[in-house]
Amino acid sequence: MAPAVQSVSPLAPLGVNAALEASRNASIKPSPKIFEEFALTDRVGIVSGGNRGLGLEMALALCEAGARAIYCFDLPETPCEEWVKTKEFVEKLGNGARLEYDSVDVTKQKEIWEKAKVIGDKEQRMDVCVAAAGILKAHTDCLTYPEEQFKQVHDVNTNGVLFTAQAAGQQMRRFGKGGSIILIASMSGSITNKDHAWVSYNTSKSAVLQMARSMACELGKENIRVNSLSPGHIYTSMTAAYLDAQPHLLEKWSNLNPMGRIGRPDELRGVITWLASDASSFCTGSDILVSGGHHAW
Ligand SMILES: NC(=O)c1ccc[n+]([C@@H]2O[C@H](COP(=O)([O-])OP(=O)(O)OC[C@H]3O[C@@H](n4cnc5c(N)ncnc54)[C@H](O)[C@@H]3O)[C@@H](O)[C@H]2O)c1
């Protein structure tokens, strides 16, 4: 007896079912569908921390995958030159995607909710959220860690991630079509970086891992999926603060993973598109580690 069918892909028939249907009906011409499953055609999304670094790289990947509009939220009033050049590149892709920018501080809950509502009003949908805004401070002794600095890191890395997810999630609920929320955590939420005194950062990232699981459990029935993505060492402005000032760290960090090198921002393009798209439609409450194997040692 065939098991009860509980869900059907919008691209059905897919996979083996497509093969069986083609064998029954000679007029069906087999064609690959795997990249259609990754396509983000007409989707709308928000990427916090999207002015530069991993956020901007991910926003571009979502645009290349066919999103209608990706809104980058970040602190500066106007976006940086790199962002402007990336927007121009998106305009030339010819797939109709738009890269937009809004000056938003993710620690301001009501403001970010309101910004997302304005986007919902305009676009009449919300499908993807990438909460990538984050900060890392200089080494600070855990036994005398100052209260204000500890709170500041948590305000951005934990509270700000929640507020961003709420802002997009409220719009996903409003339009009733589900969605994918991706919280950018870090391998530092699961492991401690050798010889680095980063207790505030590491603690804030651990909180993000549990936030993703917790939200996933509350929102699963609404088909709003929530996962965390935990990168390993990747060269961006955040890590440049260490790597440029202490060049010996490049070799040290590289030797901490089995691949013997640090990662590139573009090496997160595939995983973010997979998580944002229907190709990951049964994935929620998971943490995806992309660390060159750092965590495996
Ligand atoms: N680079 C790495 O090796 C690495 C590894 C693991 C995780 N991460 C995480 O990836 C995310 C992106 O980091 P990145 O490496 O691209 O760093 P980055 O410093 O280049 O980018 C972070 C962005 O967040 C923005 N931001 C900071 N506070 C904000 C606020 N209150 N409101 C809105 N935006 C704010 C910054 O302006 C900046 O544009 C962070 O959450 C970081 O912790 C990075």
UniProtKB/TrEMBL annotation:
SUPFAM superfamilies the record matches: NAD(P)-binding Rossmann-fold domains (SSF51735)
| InterPro entries named among the record's database cross-references | NAD(P)-bd_dom_sf, Sc_DH/Rdtase_CS, SDR_fam
Lineage of source species: Eukaryota, Fungi, Dikarya, Basidiomycota, Agaricomycotina
Any idea what this protein is called?
Sorbose reductase sou1
Q: Cite the GO molecular-function annotations of the record.
A: oxidoreductase activity, acting on NAD(P)H, oxygen as acceptor; oxidoreductase activity, acting on the CH-OH group of donors, NAD or NADP as acceptor
Q: Which UniProt keywords apply?
A: NADP, Oxidoreductase
Q: Into which family does the record put it?
A: Belongs to the short-chain dehydrogenases/reductases (SDR) family.
UniProt keyword rRNA-binding, yes or no? no
Q: Coiled-coil stretches, from where to where? A: none
